[in-house]
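User: Could you go from structure to sequence for me? I need the amino acid at each position, not a summary. Structure tokens:
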């Protein structure tokens, strides 16, 4: 059985929710310490989480730019 690098507790595979930059990605596989709750992700999972969070952040940025641009144009036309 693997042990935690932080507290040397037992580490077990589990599904966890991960928050990155305000984006919550649910049910991601991680090895989780049963003592301190430290989470370890393999490279593929970590990359996937970063990709999802980056995509949401980019779409949010595009949306906000469009929203404020439209609001400015409407205000300027009045």
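Assistant: Here is the amino acid at each position, in order:
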């Amino acid at each position: 059985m693997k042990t935690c690098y932080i507290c040397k507790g037992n580490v077990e595979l589990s599904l966890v929710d991960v928050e990155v930059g305000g984006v919550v990605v649910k049910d991601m596989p991680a090895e989780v310490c049963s003592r301190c709750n430290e989470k370890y992700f393999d490279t593929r999972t970590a990359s996937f989480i970063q990709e999802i969070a980056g995509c949401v952040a980019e779409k949010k940025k595009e949306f906000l730019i469009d929203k404020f641009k439209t609001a400015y144009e409407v205000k300027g036309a009045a």
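One structural detail worth keeping in mind: The chain is about 45% helix and 30% strand.
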